Amino acid sequence: MKELGWDPTVEQIRDGEGFQYKFTIGDEVFTTRESHLPSTGGVPDSGRPSTCFPIKLGNIARKDTGIPRRVHTRTIFHDVGVALNNITSLADILSCLSGALQALRYMHKAGWVHRDFSVGNAIWFGGMGKLSDFEYAKKIDSNTSHDVRTGTMRFMAVEAESEIYLFLTRHARRLDDRSSLRMNFLHDIESIWWVFTWILFYHTDTNTANADHSFDAHAQLKEYYLAFPGTVGRTSRRDFFLDAGQLQTKLENILSKTCFNVWSPIIPDFADALQDSYQKAEANFPLLALDDALLDDIHTKAAAYLDDAQRRASGIELCPLSNLLKQKRPRPGDETSLPPNNQGKKARNA
Known about the structure:
By secondary structure, this protein is of the alpha+beta class. It has helices at about 60-65, 90-110, 160, 185-200, 205-210, 215-225, 235-240, 245-255, 255-265, 265-280, 290-310, 320-325, and strands at about 10-15, 20-25, 30, 80-85, 110-115, 120-125, 130, 140, 205, 320.
């Protein structure tokens, strides 16, 4: 940091029963006001507006996941951005996601994997998406026998969750080392898909939220919990990713027309492209064909899907389903509006 002209001082101060840290850099002061949530990936807590499922958004039981705890670190950036999950403009969300995807491409080209892509570590700053939170990043090592389950549950690749290869040939499924999973760039790209899909299922557009009284937010939220249960081993999550036909039907049945026109058929097509790539990579297991051609192909396709969605997303503002369900249902003719578009759009604290 001193190379950047910064000479920070750090002071531990008591905050109730706990502690927080105060960083002083020149004339600026930063404090660690928010608790560290190592497994939620920045997913906001909805307060569980629906009682259909016992899992709260943002809460993951450690005993259920088996995901190792991170070492608590604080990294101070000169730039102050907004995490993807705090952006309300759909076009900006997709642009942010595209920028983070480009950053992943640089990592993958260098032989590294991120292993924890989520809505909390794609940062929107100055009209550009940036990637952060590299605690779990590692160089791809063919000599490593097995990777432990790593990442944020809701955005974790299904193979990473299962800790086994799932797209093997029939013969390879009989091999003893099927469970020797090592995370690769396809798993990072699948996390992009899960974030892409989370945006869709966790929100609706504000026009629908304000005016469409036939929109069933509870039905969409129920599908959200099936796709993002927050615990390991739920078959509904794997089925959601693997069955593109059923996914397309769900999109048609539960989404607002505005959202459906943006996402269909991009979400199912993106999932199919990932599954095709997994099958190519694992065709000659235990050898994995993770070459530059496959890397370039899946990155190019993923970028194209995001660009296609972004072209359709102009002018669309999103509203979390939890906000919508907390509001009193208006009667026909009543004038209601959501909070200002910039509400909840706060800068990410250092």
